[in-house]
Amino acid sequence: MEVNGDGTGSSTRPLKVIDEENIAVEIPETAHQISSDSWFQVGFVLTTGINSAYVLGYSGTIMVPLGWIPGVLGLIIATAISLYANSLIAKLHEFGGRRHIRYRDLAGFIYGRKAYSLTWGLQYVNLFMINTGYIILAGSALKAVYALFSDDHVMKLPYFIALSGFVCALFAMSIPHLSSLRLWLGVSTVFSLIYIVVAFVLSVKDGIEAPARDYSIPGTTQSKIFTTIGASANLVFAFNTGMLPEIQATIKQPVVSNMMKSLYFQFTAGVLPMYAVTFIGYWAYGSSTSTYLLSSVNGPVWVKALANIAAFLQTVIALHIFASPMYEYLDTRFGITGSPFSIRNLSFRVGVRGGYLTINTLVAALLPFLGDFMSLTGAISTFPLTFILANHMYMKAKKNKLTSLQKLWHWLNVYFFGLMSIAAAVSALRLIAVDSKTYHVFADL
């Protein structure tokens, strides 16, 4: 939807005006499905994002820089504030008599044209980096399988990244939109449980057999400050998608109450496995915890191979969630409707999605230490989208219904996370400068 500078909103495509539960709601045209999924399915979409293979790195990227008490408290607090911020966005989904099926639509409706464009830019940079990170994760999992059976080092990480990108493209061509994941969400959950259970069990075994571990925070005083800030940014990344309106667009009416059910499902059933594998990994290996936990554990080769293959396959599925806003924009822009497997529509997905993921794959192979850049994009996009905008949009939309104390609370959130965003950006830039001296393009990490 396009919006005017005054924020009233106008569309270059006609709006659907439907009557759901006796309430007239305007819905922008889209080539993807709207109001087709149960809250339970949407809950699994959210949970799939939380329990992706990224959880295998949280012991190293969150617990090691923070230590036991700040790390545990940080995860619990991040869970609570993320649930709160996401609930604010969810409650604005039908604000102003319109259903805002895209994050940029909501921002544009509240603030105007400039905010529409800025939000769109921030969101797509964030999602592009997440998608690229998923391809690196998938390539790392494949390389880990290869290393279990061969030590000739002939196959390098960039080769596995290229193979992962190809598999992700094949999957993207066969899944027309987010709602059609359905069965694949169950498959993804099985894969997640495999690598989480394997990492948990083998870490417990190693932890019991290991001597006393070192849980001190490594580095100089100066580096500890920056790594602590970076770990705080990773806490935010762990729980947030940056595309909540796009996910909520797929849910059946009533969209707000059903989305709240999905969020509660995500932040109860979804976070427990993440907590388990994060805490047990740090307990077992202390400050020596690898940033990819399955690289640290000791166990039967076939078990670790199974877990890494599961991580690879789950990553392929999870990437589709974070790429779906781009797919939706392109499909809608070029009028890709009708049967998803018609010659025209299938060839469009092959060319356009294949091209998009080719760019992702090239960037992933070129910069396999992309985690540094993801920290930067998280600072300049995830913080603003998830916390700053969420609180300010809610305050602006509900200003006549909020008490002075409630307004003060939201302003405190805006300023606090604004400062955190600036600090996290500085920390990420420092990390990029430091690591650029160590790594090179197309590195075999």
UniProtKB/TrEMBL annotation:
Pfam families xrefs: Aa_trans (PF01490)
GO molecular function: symporter activity
Location of the protein in the cell: Endomembrane system
Any GO BP: auxin-activated signaling pathway
Membrane-traversing stretches: 68-89, 124-145, 157-176, 183-204, 224-242, 263-285, 305-330, 350-370, 376-394, 414-433
Chief place of localization: membrane
Membrane topology: Multi-pass membrane protein
Statement: the UniProt record of this protein carries the keyword rRNA-binding: no
GO cellular component: endomembrane system
Functional note: Carrier protein involved in proton-driven auxin influx. Mediates the formation of auxin gradient from developing leaves (site of auxin biosynthesis) to tips by contributing to the loading of auxin in vascular tissues and facilitating acropetal (base to tip) auxin transport within inner tissues of the root apex, and basipetal (tip to base) auxin transport within outer tissues of the root apex. May be involved in lateral roots and nodules formation.
UniProt cross-references to PANTHER family, sorted A to Z: OS05G0424000 PROTEIN-RELATED
Identification of the protein by name: PROLINE TRANSPORTER 1
